[in-house]
């Protein structure tokens, strides 16, 4: 029987799926695929690129390769972004019993994948992790600032998980798929550190082994490490500490709202005390400025994956100001009602703030960042 006439059931699933989240990595995709072909010779594997609609044509480049090699697949996500969520979707898109995650920038050592697979199969462990902090590993050409940031983030991470991980910030690892399916509903999918998310979300302590590797220099493209990524990392730590009762977007939204109070006071002081404007005029301008800064910070950080651009910014700003204006009225009304009902003034004020914050978050999530907001 020719291969083209074989029944579908005669094709066994791959043993290993390599998940590669990409965003603007068109210059690396061909080289990474070729390196994996060389490193994984003799193994039954598949490669899944998860592309967040890269403007540089990363998905098109990957699809060209997939047309020539059926082991290569492309999962293209429209209207959403995020490294951790991309990894989760990629891992859920395969039936392979073993799953590896590595970046698309060629900085991880793909030659270690066969030994990682053998370690995972031979020993009674759940996950094998590439570590930059074991003897024999290293951070490559990182400068002092980035090394310090990595170590600080690692110390924060170790306060969240009980495992004695040397490199909890690693983005290079391989796991048994049963581990993923056992904790997937608890994953936050926030930010860029899916390994830490898995350890913090597992219902039981994980059996792991770390192996050393040296972090390579990026070959093409640009680093995605920016302030928004660090913000998402901190939010993920906060959510994992508090639990999933409070949505992580609401936490970020509220923190930015708190910063808006500082902006409001500063603007009011400048206008009223320094420039001689009336209190009412100063209050009105300060309120508008605080709302505007809150809008742009939320657009850049809280709703980074749904970021509004160009003309959408104007529409989003108008809806945000309108929603928050109604929220301010609700804040004052609830606080005044409770205070007049002989409630303690601090409790009354806090209740008003809480009602206003929940209103602002709920309404702006639907109407301001309404494109697939969740």
Descriptive report:
With 374 residues, the protein is α/β, with parallel strands linked by helices. 52% of the residues lie in helices and 10% in strands. The protein folds into 2 domains: 3-242, Spore Coat Polysaccharide Biosynthesis Protein SpsA, Chain A (Alpha-Beta Complex), CATH 3.90.550.10; 248-367. It has helices spanning 26-39, 58-68, 83-92, 113-122, 144-158, 177-183, 194-201, 227-242, 248-274, 279-302, 311-340, 345-367; strands spanning 16-22, 45-51, 72-76, 98-101, 127-131, 173-176, 208-212. A 7-stranded mixed sheet has the order 3-2-1-4-6-5-7. Helix 1 links the parallel strand 1 and strand 2. The N and C termini lie far apart (50 Å). The relative contact order is 0.09.
Defining traits:
12 helices, elongated, about 50% helix, alpha/beta, 2 domains, Spore Coat Polysaccharide Biosynthesis Protein SpsA, Chain A, seven-stranded mixed β-sheet, 7 strands, about 375 residues, single chain
Set down the secondary structure blueprint.
Blueprint lengths: L15 E7 L3 H14 L5 E7 L6 H11 L3 E5 L6 H10 L5 E4 L11 H10 L4 E5 L12 H15 L14 E4 H7 L10 H8 L6 E5 L14 H16 L5 H27 L4 H24 L8 H30 L4 H23 L7
Parallel strand pairs: 1-2, 1-4, 2-3, 5-7
Antiparallel strand pairs: 4-6, 5-6
